[in-house]
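sry for the spam today, last one i promise. struct tokens for design, 310 residues
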């Protein structure tokens, strides 16, 4: 009996020793901290990179206020995992459309991340009436050549809307002097940013006291840039086949009215829903086109959609 008690006591002592050893091994250290960040369900403080920039313009991270605000956005966007993974998926689909248009207008590539924070790369609708991936207001769209009405709203046309965003940003850069301020002006308006700079007697975005939304704006853009550029560093794991891809399409020119888009779609072997998916700027099930304006309607190539009703 005494022998059995001694054996049990020894087993208990060994178990406690093993638990202590494992606890020490699991404790975060400088050596294993980065390894544990990957494929780990624990939550860790993130190290803000020493050097971050937007459009080549350095973020003054030596300023403790700037460092804390950047840290906040990295944390919020890293640990909102479902939203982050969706951004990776959509970026694969839409960045190849946005990037060449930015390059055409000599807009820094970093501005594609502005579209990410504006809309999540969806055709979002804001309470103020901004719409589309670039969240363009009706007046801004019309001023820059977009058709905006109940029948056709080209703010939902990603290529045309990107061109309007580029024109707006070029004007902001010319008026305000930096790409950082131009990005802020996309949120608060050129006049609003210019007025704040004058009132506070400063010349830099990072020196401005701003409202919550515009005050976080650049930090959110840079956070998304950092995370989307370094997925494994921030714990996002996926394969290329997990991401979304654009379905190849061809364009059909229409310069007359279309009375029924359901019948129109049927001529190309698709249904109305699929036609709308590829042409969200067509807002009604018909096209008025009293002026006989030429429109290019995108039709998906054969073999990408399996229609249940066929």
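last one done:
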């Amino acid at each position: 009996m005494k022998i059995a008690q001694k054996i049990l006591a020894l087993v208990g002592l060994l178990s406690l020793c093993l638990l202590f050893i494992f606890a020490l091994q699991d404790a975060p250290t400088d050596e294993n901290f980065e390894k544990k960040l990957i494929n780990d369900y624990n939550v860790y403080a993130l190290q803000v990179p020493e050097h971050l920039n937007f459009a080549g313009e350095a973020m003054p991270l030596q300023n403790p206020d700037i460092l804390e605000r950047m840290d906040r956005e990295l944390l919020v966007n890293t640990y909102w995992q479902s939203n982050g993974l969706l951004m990776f998926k959509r970026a694969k689909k839409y960045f190849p459309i946005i990037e060449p248009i930015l390059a055409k207008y000599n807009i820094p590539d970093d501005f594609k991340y502005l579209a990410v924070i504006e809309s999540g790369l969806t055709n979002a609708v804001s309470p103020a009436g901004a719409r589309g991936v670039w969240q363009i207001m009706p007046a801004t769209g019309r001023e820059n050549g977009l058709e905006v009405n109940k029948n056709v709203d080209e703010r939902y046309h990603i290529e045309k809307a990107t061109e309007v965003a580029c024109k707006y940003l070029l004007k902001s850069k010319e008026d305000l002097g930096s790409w950082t301020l131009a990005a802020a002006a996309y949120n608060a308006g050129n006049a609003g940013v210019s007025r704040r700079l004058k009132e506070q007697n400063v010349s830099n975005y990072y020196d401005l006291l701003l409202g919550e939304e515009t005050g976080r704006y650049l930090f959110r853009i840079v956070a998304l840039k950092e995370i989307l550029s370094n997925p494994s560093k921030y714990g996002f794991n996926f394969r290329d086949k997990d991401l979304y891809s654009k379905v190849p399409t061809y364009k059909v020119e229409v310069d007359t009215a279309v009375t029924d888009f359901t019948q129109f779609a049927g001529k190309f072997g698709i249904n109305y829903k699929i036609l709308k998916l590829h042409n969200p700027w067509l807002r009604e099930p018909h096209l008025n086109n009293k002026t006989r304006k030429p429109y290019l309607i995108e039709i998906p190539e054969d073999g990408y959609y399996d229609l249940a009703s066929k």
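The CA atoms of residues 8 and 14 lie 10 Å apart. ok im logging off now
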